[in-house]
Amino acid sequence: MHAFAGLGGGFGHTLAYIVINIDPVLLQVGPIAIHWYGLMYVVAISVALWVVLRYVMKLGIHDEQVWNVFLWTAIAGLIGGRLYYVIQQPDLLQHFILQPYNIIAVWNGGMAFFGAIFLGAATLFFVAPRYGISPWLAIDAGGLFAVIGQIFGRVGNIINGDIVGYAVTKGTITVPADTCATAPCLAYVSDPNIPWYATVYLNPHSFHAVSVPYQPAALYEIGLNLVMLFIIWQVRYMLPRMRAGYLFTLYLTLYAVSQIIVFFARDNVYTPFLGINGLKQAQWTAIFVLIFVVPALLLLARRYSGPWRYSAARPVPWPAGAKSEAALDEKVTPTPIASSSPAAEAVDLPPWQPVHPVGGQLRNLLGSTRPSRGAT
Questions:
Q1: Which of 45, 157, 238, 293 is the 20 to 30 A CA-CA neighbour of 15?
Q2: Domain range for residue 285?
Q3: Percentage helix, strand, coil, to 5, in the chain?
Q4: Which residues pair with 354 in a beta bridge?
């Protein structure tokens, strides 16, 4: 098995550059190809959804509500991510407008996550109230979903080789012939002339040139995502209880900062703007988000949102119009019915004694021969 060749020597070996020989296509069944990239998207969505379901349950939201919102949001996120990638391409007219099939060819790589955030969050915000969920808490849960899903999605980028940093050498290098000669394979090669963090692709179907050591930009993003997740995880319940919407604002702030940082290492074209030539499209988008979107979200949340007061013990009323369990459990003090007549004085009566029934009725020594209506 070649999957982890060279990795079995333990930690005693010198750190070295990483060699990846994995075909982006995991499985080919006739004309149908299952890509690693698509598989990692499925894993990302599944794991993130599993975590979010447990998160919102503790905030008093029902599974049924989440499933109703999730489908629309997932579709919007995928469409937004793809379209935002497409419109940034220099060959937009020739490759996409004139060949619209390429717009949906996501298996060839190409998703801009800012687009997924924008359209996904907007859809979540407007759809959630239809299912009894606060739009502000909905986007909070969406931020948690995104930061978890991104980690697994970037693994697909590493396998594809479609997100890389700058090359660390001026050309190709010679990888030892016995290293990762057969796919799938992941190995390392000790070479004092190449930085230990570099990544070299050998599979001819990889998205970037083979035998060229690149900075592992996708791995950098995973590291930044883990830092973001650590921060968000600590305040995932505290911020919504301060004011719903703050958690998503924190996520968006951290993600924008991470993109400014990581794109200094990514091998993307520069986008001249405002006389500045040293930044890329994603960095300009991140700056726009930090200057305009984040302050706007904070102001809107302060104006229209409030502390989240529901919990697992006091859930959101669902279906619409139903009372929460907490409301049903509230003790109601019965109100005494006022008497319209003065209270009667206590009268000492002789003890009740049965007699033989006559005519099917019981008589006693005190009452009349006919019981009053309604007596029991």
A1: 157
A2: 24-166+215-304
A3: 45, 10, 45
A4: 364
Mean pLDDT of the chain: 84
Q: Name residue 336's beta-bridge partners.
A: none
Q: Which residue has the tokens 């999730």?
A: 70
10-33: average pLDDT: 80
> Side-chain half-sphere of 245: how many Cα atoms within 13 Å?
21
369 found inside a domain: no
* In-domain check, residue 178: no
Predicted local confidence at residue 259, as pLDDT: 97
* Model pLDDT for residues 331-366, shown as the tens digit of each residue: 444 445 454 445 545 556 555 555 544 444 444 444
pTM of the model: 0.80
Phi, psi angle pair for 237, to nearest 5°: -100, -30
Q: Which residues on adjacent β-strands are paired with residue 29?
A: 32
Q: Tell me, yes or no, whether 126 lies in a domain.
A: yes
Asked if residue 317 lies in contact with residue 324, where contact means CB atoms within 8 angstroms, the answer is: yes
Q: Which two tokens stand for residue 189?
A: 């090669």
Alpha-helix runs per DSSP H in 34-134: 36-58, 63-86, 113-127
Q: Are 61 and 312 in contact (CB under 8 A)?
A: no
Comparison of pLDDT for 55 and 369, the residue scoring more: 55
Domain count, the chain: 1
Query: Kind and range of the H or E element at 328?
Result: helix 325-329
The alpha helices in 113-245, defined as continuous H runs, are 113-127, 135-160, 217-234, 238-242
Per-residue confidence (pLDDT) for residue 376, from 0 to 100 = 44
Q: Which is more confident, 363 or 274?
A: 274
With contact defined as beta carbons under 8 Å apart, do 186 and 19 qualify? yes
CB distance 198 to 216 below 8 Å: yes
CA distance linking residue 157 with residue 40, whole number of Å? 9
Q: What are phi and psi of 272, to 5 degrees?
A: -60, 135
How many other C-beta atoms can be found within 10 angstroms of the C-beta atom of residue 87? 12
Q: Is residue 239 part of a domain?
A: yes
- The closest alpha carbon to 189, from 205, 201, 176, belongs to 176
